[in-house]
C-alpha cells in the first residue's frame, strides 16, 4: 500500500457565543463558505518566521459559565441582533457587558469579535431617520473590542456581499499570529500543553521535541514503581497512552509520553520513506524507555510486550513484506536484547501475565527452542538482505550464548563467539567484549580434548587477546602448559601485547660481545625461553638475543650479539619464543652500530674488543701493491680465525703457488695461511692450530691489482673463537665492509740527463755519467704533503746528490725537485724511496692525541664516558675539514667550515645525557687547539707516527753507446767580424755495456753488424747567416767496434775554420750526429759546448751594448 505524504489541514478552533441563535440559525453556513484562509505567516518566540498552510476553521460554542468543549480556541466571537435603540439598551448591551466581564478574567486575553446581524426584511422606512446608529453605538460603548462588524441578511449585489465577507475574513486572518502566540504564552511551563498546541498547528517536530523533553526528564524508574501495578493498568498505559490517575506515577507518565511520540511519528498519512525514518526514531525511543526501567522480570516482560506491539504495526508489516527493509528494527531490538548481558536477576518467583509469552514459557525446552528458532530466522533474514556484519555479529552473539550456556552445542557456539567478541572489542564495547571472550575461552576448553593442536592455538590466541584488554586475567602456569602442547611453531602478531618505550645505544660489557637494552611494557607476565631482536639493512641481518626471561608488566631487557656488523640498521622486529609459540612484535626504529675498540667495566678497568681493518700499507711499492689486513686482538686470546672476502676477488694476485702469512707487528710470530680461492670468495685460515695472544697486532699482506678508480670496496667476514678465562669459548663473527682509498697522495715525475767530464790532461778519456731528476707534487690542492726524506739506492752503486732540508712541503702546483748523479751503470734498476706524510694525517693524529689529553683533564667525566667521547671524536675528526694549506705553513690548526651539522650526525650515536655535553666539549677543545704550539720534540713524534713510504723501482736507461761532441778553440772576450777562428771538433765514441753479464752479452751481440762498423753522420745546420764554415760541412764517421772498446773507446778530431758574419752575441754552429747504419742499439750524445755563444765586434776592444 503506497502512502503519499500530503500536508494535512490545520484546524483552528474559534469559540462563539450566540444568545439569539443567529449563528446557528443560518450564519454558520456563510462563515464556513466565506471565511477561508489558505496560509498565514507567523513569527514564533524565537523570531523565526513560519508559514501555516491549508487552515480550516472549526467553530466551538462557548456559553458563559458553562463547561468548555475545547480548551484551545484562538478567538472569541459574539453574535447579537437588534433593530432599535431601546432593545439595544435593555437587552443587547447588558449581555455584551457580562460576556466581556467573563473574558476579562482570562490572561492573556484572546482577540474578540462582535457581529451585529441586521435583518433587512424587518427594517422600515422610519428606521432610516434614526439619529443613533446601533453599529456606531457598539463601537462607542465597547472601545476595547477592535473588531465589531455588521452582517446584513440581504445585499443588493453579490459583489457587495463578497466584499463584506472578505473584510471579515481578513480581520480574522490578521489576528491569527497573535492568537497563536497567546496560546503558547498560556501553556508556558507545561510541555504537554505546548506540545498539544504544536500538534494542532501541524508542527510535528516541535511537538515531538516537547514530548521528548518530558520523556527524558524521567531518566530512571525503579522496579517498585511498576512491578506491583496490575497488568490491566500496564496494558492500558502501553496501548492507549492514558494517564489513568497516575500523575504521580513516573512509569504511567512515561508510558503516556511514549504513546504520544508514537502517535506523532507513526502517522499513516506519511509517505513510506518518512514513515520508515520515523520507525527508526521510535525504535530508539523504545530502547530508551526499556533501558530506563530497573532490571527485573517485569521489565523484560514489558520489553517483550512493547516490541511485540511494535512489530504488529500493519504499516511496518506491509513495508517489510514489500521491501525486506530490515534496517528499521536493528537499532532497538538487537541493542535492547544485549543490554542485559551479565545482569543478575532476583530469585523470587514471577508470574507472567501475557498469554503469548506464557505459551513460550511452558517449559525450559519450549522457551529455548523458540528463542533459537526466532534468532536463527532473524539471522537468515539479515543475511539474505545483505545486512551489515555488525548487525549479524550481534545476533550471532545472542545465539552463541544460548548454545553455550543452555544447549551445550560448543562447536557452533565457538564459531559464533569468535566473531562476536572481536566485534565488540573493535567497536569499543570493552565490558561486553571481555565477557564474551571469557565465555569463548571456556568454550574452547570444552573442545581441546577432541580437537587437539588446532584448538590449543586458538585458545592461546584468545588468552593473549584477553590479556591485552585485561592484564590481570592471564594464568601464567596454565598459559605455559598450553604453549608446551603446540606441536609446530605458531606465529602470533603481538603489537597490542608489548610496547617498546626506549632502545639504548649498542654498548659492551664483555669482550667481543655487543649489547643493547630495551625498555618494554608487557600485558602478560610469563617466562619466555628466548627473546630475539632482528636488525636488517641492504647488506646484512643480525640478531641480538637473550634467554630465560621472566616477563613482568614493566621490563628492561639486555640482549647480546657476538655475530655483529658495524653499520646502520632498521629494526625488523622483536620475537618472544615460548616453546613453539612465537610472539612477533613489529615496530619501527633505527640503530647505528659502531666498532667499540675499548670499553670500561667495573673497577674502572678497560677492556678491548678484537677488531680488524683493511687498507693500503704505510710502505707502498709502486710496482707491487698490497692490501694490508690488520688484526687487533682484544683482551681475550683468540683462535680458529677465518677471513672470507666476498668481492673483487679477481683483483687479488693469488694463484695456487702463492703464499700468505699472518705476521705479528712486534715479535717474531709468523703463521702460514691456507688459501681457498673460488670464483666469488677468498678464504684465509691458519694452516695450524695456534692461539693468537691478547692485545697483539697481526698483519696480512695480500698482493692486489689496484684499478684506475680511487676507491676499492671490500666486503669480508672475520670468524674466530674468543677464549674466555672461565666458561665456554665464544664463537664470534664480524661482518665487515670497507671502502679502501687506493689513491697515492703524491705524484712523481722523472727525467735522465746524460753528461760527461774530461780531465784537463790531454790524454785523459771522458768520464760518462747521467743525472736522475725527480719532481714530487701533491695530487690534491686541499691536502699538501710533507717530504720527510728522499733516497735513491741500488746495489753497490754510489749516488751523489744535493741534500735539501727535511720536511719540504709539496703542493699541487709547487712541487720539489731532487737530482742524483749516477756515475756508473752497474745495476739494471735502482730504487727511489720517498718518506712523506699528508697534512690530513698529521692533523688527525694531533687532534686525536690532544683530545685524549683534554677529556682526561675533565674531572666531571668518568673513564667510561671519556672512552665513549674519544671514539665519537675519531668519527668526527675524519669528517671535519681543516685548513690544510695553512697548517702546512704554520703548524696551526684551524677549521675550514662550520661543524654543527657534522657534530649532530655524530652525537646521535651517544646516549641522551652524553649527547647534551659532548658538543660543548668539542667546541671548547677546538678553541684550545687553535692556540696550541708544536715544539720540535712533538714535531719529530708527529712525523714518525704519520710517516708513509713510497718505493719506486727506476730502470737504468739501456744505453749501448755514448758519444761526446766538443769544440776546442782559443777563447777570447771578443772576436772581430769576418776574421777566421780556428776550431778543433773532438768526437769521442765509447760502447757501453751493463753490469749484468747476460744482458751485456746480448747488447754486444746486437752491436755486431757487417764489417763491425757503425756509420755515424755529423752535420752542421742553422748557421748560414751567422757563420761560414771552412773545411767540411758534413762528416761521415765509420766506427770500428773492434778498436772502439772500453776503456779507451775511439777518438776523432777535425780541424775547422769558423768565420763570423754578424755582430753581437751569436751561437756557435749547431751540430747533429745521426746513426746512419745499424739501428738496433741506443746511443746517448753529450753536446759539451755546441750551444755556446761568442761576442763578435767590428773593432777589437770596442764596447758593445746589447738592447
From TrEMBL:
<dbReference type="InterPro" id="IPR022233">
    <property type="entry name" value="TRAPPC10/Trs130_C"/>
</dbReference>
<dbReference type="Pfam" id="PF24967">
    <property type="entry name" value="NTS_TR130"/>
</dbReference>
<dbReference type="GO" id="GO:0006891">
    <property type="term" value="P:intra-Golgi vesicle-mediated transport"/>
</dbReference>
<dbReference type="InterPro" id="IPR056913">
    <property type="entry name" value="TRAPPC10/Trs130_N"/>
</dbReference>
<dbReference type="GO" id="GO:0034498">
    <property type="term" value="P:early endosome to Golgi transport"/>
</dbReference>
<dbReference type="GO" id="GO:0005829">
    <property type="term" value="C:cytosol"/>
</dbReference>
<feature type="domain" description="TRAPPC10/Trs130 C-terminal">
    <location>
        <begin position="954"/>
        <end position="1097"/>
    </location>
</feature>
<feature type="domain" description="TRAPPC10/Trs130 N-terminal">
    <location>
        <begin position="35"/>
        <end position="187"/>
    </location>
</feature>
<dbReference type="InterPro" id="IPR045126">
    <property type="entry name" value="TRAPPC10/Trs130"/>
</dbReference>
<dbReference type="Pfam" id="PF23036">
    <property type="entry name" value="TRAPPC10_1st"/>
</dbReference>
<keyword id="KW-0333">Golgi apparatus</keyword>
<feature type="domain" description="Trs130 NTS">
    <location>
        <begin position="339"/>
        <end position="453"/>
    </location>
</feature>
<dbReference type="InterPro" id="IPR056916">
    <property type="entry name" value="NTS_TR130"/>
</dbReference>
<dbReference type="GO" id="GO:1990071">
    <property type="term" value="C:TRAPPII protein complex"/>
</dbReference>
<protein>
    <recommendedName>
        <fullName>Trafficking protein particle complex subunit 11 domain-containing protein</fullName>
    </recommendedName>
</protein>
<keyword id="KW-0813">Transport</keyword>
<dbReference type="Pfam" id="PF12584">
    <property type="entry name" value="TRAPPC10"/>
</dbReference>
